[in-house]
Amino acid sequence: MNRRWRRAAFALLGGIGLTSLVGCWGIAPIEKTGMVTLLGVDRAERGGYRVTASVDMPSASSTSPGLGQVPGVLVRHAEAPDLAVAIQRLRTMSFLSLDFSHVEAVVLSESVAREGAGAPLALLGSAPEMVTTPWLLVARGMSAYDVLTGLKAVTPRPDEVLIDTAVENRQRTPYRPLHLYSFLRDAQSDTDEAVTAGLVVDAAQGTGREAAPRLTGDALFRRDALVGWLDGPPALGWLLVAGRVRQQTFAVPWPPGRVVFQIVRSQRSVRVVRQGGGPMADIRVRVALRLLASEGAAPNWWRSPVELDRAREGAAEILVRDALDALRQAKRVGADVFGLGEYVRAQDARDWPALAAHWSERGFRRLPVAVSVRVTVDTLGEVVCPVVDGAC
Fold first, then answer.
1. Domain ranges in the chain?
2. 3-class DSSP string for 35-51
3. CA within 20 to 30 Å of 331's CA: 154, 313, 338, 341, which one?
4. Are the C-beta atoms of residues 291 and 384 closer than 8 Å to each other?
5. Is 235-379 a CATH 3.30.300.210 domain?
6. Per-residue pLDDT tens for 35-78?
7. What is the pLDDT of residues 187-216, one digit of tens each?
């Protein structure tokens, strides 16, 4: 049973159960119920908030759509000086009885994220109806309203496409969406800053997955405020230093082509040593790689120990460079998204009290960090195929 039918069945059974307990008073029939699956939060032009909801109508889920049609999906929005009032206004303006218990993703605009996302997200996170664990994404370069209206055209349904995108990207790319409750936890931490993914929706060329969303980078937060982005290789470097890298792929130049590796597993260790000017972090990472593909290389080149060592050393150099780039960019905005403050606190009790109060603003920015990466190639496979053919 897919997600759409599960929701319809849940709403129907829930309605039957409640009716049997308290009668039918105050319970909206299923044909007048709308399930909010995606929620967007923007700053309103006249101040306050604009809340946008992608609403799934279970009563329409049983219809057989024509080609390119997405029945039962509505996008509604409301504005108010306060977020709670905007949500209430959204309820009263709709002809449906809105159910917020199935919200699967919350999308913030950049302006809301930069001003501080803690207050609006705490309100959403503490709402009794929020019984699921929604993903948190930042609309990058566009409003949350534009994201949700753009997603209205995708199939099978906006929430399913968005969640599939988030889960797939989390496994295969450096861009890592975070759950709302994990973000709130990290935003309250003294030493570990939050990171979540940026989201855009491509202009729709018709219907279907042509309008599918893309994750474009990792949003760096200091406490609850967006302060910068990590794109491309530095995003992979962040995963590496933070000890979260897994299954991501990257390419090593191999004139006249390249070699593509997948990270099978990794292990990091962080040692904080005290020097004359304060603490220094020494990060050592061990990475096991799988050789995925090669382009422009001689046949069976990986059978040569010399050539394989050259590829391994090239991979280590690239990973160290990406890690240092990520550290440099994070230091510039003062966002310890690597959790290094925890190691300083645990391993340098003498210096930590003076650094604790202003760790992100000063301590992390000034912390010397050394990174070394040791690479092994555990899996070669029987065949390494050309990248350009896309046959792997």
1. 3-231, 235-379
2. EEEEEEEEECCCCCEEE
3. 313
4. yes
5. yes
6. 899 999 999 988 899 999 999 876 554 444 443 444 578 899 99
7. 887 778 999 999 999 865 445 455 689 999
